[in-house]
Design a protein that fits this description.
The chain is globular, with a radius of gyration of 19 Å. By secondary structure, it is of the alpha/beta class. Helix 2 packs across helix 3 and helix 3 runs parallel beside helix 4. Helix 5 links the parallel strand 7 and strand 8. The relative contact order is 0.13. 37% of the residues lie in helices and 15% in strands. It contains 9 helices and 9 strands. It has a 7-stranded parallel beta sheet, sandwiched between helices. About 4% of the residues have low confidence.
Length: 306
């Protein structure tokens, strides 16, 4: 199988490329620049690299020649809320996603993975409170049936990609698109401290609001992407991709402070369990994501020094 990966030099894209190469697939790495590291070197057996602009539809069609599947990872990460910034951010993420989907249709490719974000739910972000830049959730744990009510421009751009995916699957028979809603992505090689240090009662709600203590180990994304490519039936589905364990224990009182209301907690959810559910990938693909040791080590190290 020949699989194209856009955004192949980024932290998520490069991890997916390496995962597919290890499985023995032929990989077409697509990005706007070449990697500085060895992961994307053109001498790697089974790897072909294309440097293109995904906003150029013709270049995308050409790059997807003879591909059997596509993982669309490319896109601007979290961008600001000022009009000058979010206008270009939305344009980039929406246009590139549309081009990849439509080019895949032109090439007859019917297996696609799109990396979305839990930001599509609209319930998390860097600012929660009086400015009402997020929507309070209906319940915890948040599953894929929870309504998406994004307010921030980045969140809207990720959900719009899922809407495009649904449109393609409705229009073209036999197409399978999996939207992977990622949480806070963590890598083994990162030297930085966790994005949310161990909380206290006085600041727990502060740290909680950033990503609800939900962690997506980078190596898990390729595993789920592969499962979706080989086994998802036709149609569009969304999947939360993250550990079933919370990075830190949370407290209901912190949630109430964040959202300024009491949020129902279902399924006897415990503080060590993730506030965003990953049950769907377990039930559909048989995949359970644990917090990896490198995350546990960093968390415990912070617990000692903080």
């Amino acid at each position: 199988m020949r699989i194209a990966v856009t955004g192949s030099t980024g932290k998520v894209g490069s991890s997916i490329v390496q995962h597919f190469l290890r499985l023995g697939y032929e990989v077409v790495a697509i990005d706007r620049r070449l990697s500085d590291g060895p992961a994307e070197a053109t001498i790697v057996p089974g790897l072909t690299s294309h440097v293109i602009d995904l906003k150029n539809y013709g270049q995308v069609v050409e790059a997807l020649d003879r591909c059997d599947a596509v993982c669309h990872v490319a896109g601007l990460p979290w961008f600001g809320d000022t009009p000058a910034i979010y206008a270009s951010g939305i344009e980039n993420n929406v246009v590139t996603t549309s081009n990849v989907f439509e080019a895949a249709m032109e090439r007859g490719i019917k297996r696609i993975v799109y990396t979305s974000s839990v930001h599509a739910y609209g319930v998390i972000g860097s600012q929660i409170g009086p400015d009402t830049m997020t929507s309070p959730p209906d319940y915890f744990p948040i599953d894929e049936d929870h309504p998406c009510r994004p307010i921030r421009p980045y969140s809207v751009s990720k959900l719009f990609g899922e809407i495009l995916a649904q449109a393609v699957c409705t229009r073209v028979k036999g197409v399978s698109i999996a939207s992977l809603r990622l949480g806070g992505v963590m890598l083994p090689r990162e030297e930085s401290r966790p994005s949310m240090p161990p909380p206290t009662d006085s600041d727990g709600h502060h740290h909680l609001r950033g990503a609800l203590f939900c962690v997506t180990p980078v190596e898990s994304i390729g595993i789920v992407a592969h499962a979706a490519i080989v086994s998802q039936p036709a149609g569009h589905q969304s999947f939360n991709v993250m550990s079933h364990q919370s990075l830190h224990d949370w407290k209901p009182a912190w949630l109430e402070r964040v959202y300024e209301r009491e949020i129902p907690i279902r399924n006897n959810l415990q503080p060590h369990q993730a506030l965003i559910s990953s049950d769907k990938i377990r039930l559909q693909f048989g995949i359970t994501i644990d917090l990896p040791q490198y995350v546990m080590d960093r968390r415990n190290a912070n617990a000692v020094t903080t």
